Amino acid sequence: MLMDVRFKRDGTALIAYIEGEIDHHTSRILRERIDSKFIVEPVKNLIMDLSRVTFMDSAGIGFILGRMKKVSSIGGEMSIRNPRPEIMKMLKMSHIDSLIKLDT
């Protein structure tokens, strides 16, 4: 498997630890797993830890923006934690850094 995701709850936040690649193959699975976990847990904020993401394409950008819209629709906040330099470069090129808090 090229992707895995683990979860941890921290107060009102769900932390998703994503590992591997986020592309058009894996983004659908990730979306389903994160969205269903987000519904089950009594949380309103989402933190995506990308420290173990090795590759991301435009499908990953769409995946992140979709989660941001879902979280903000219930009044929550989303942040991205620990992206690797090559992932950070992609996030900045797509201007996600102007929409979502990036914790490095």
Provide an overview of this structure.
The protein is of the alpha/beta class. The protein has a single domain, classed as STAS domain (Transcription Regulator spoIIAA, 2-Layer Sandwich), CATH 3.30.750.24. 38% of the residues lie in helices and 36% in strands. The chain has three helices and five strands. Strands 1-2-3-4-5 form a five-stranded mixed sheet. Helix 1 packs parallel to helix 2. The termini are far apart. The mean pLDDT is 94.
**CATH homologous superfamily name?**
STAS domain
Strand content: 35-45%
The helix/strand series, from N terminus to C terminus, equals EEHEHEHE
Helical content (DSSP H or I, runs of 4+): 25-40%
What's the CATH architecture name?
A: 2-Layer Sandwich
Uncertain segments are: none
Cα gyration radius (Å): 12 Å
Number of helices, where a helix is a run of at least 4 consecutive DSSP H or I residues: 3
CATH topology: Transcription Regulator spoIIAA
Largest sheet: 5 strands, mixed
Globally, the shape reads globular
Strand order, largest beta sheet: 1-2-3-4-5
Q: Indicate the mean pLDDT.
A: 94
Number of strands: 5
CATH class placement: Alpha Beta
| Whole-number tally of structural domains | 1
Secondary-structure-derived class: alpha/beta
N-C termini distance: 27 Å
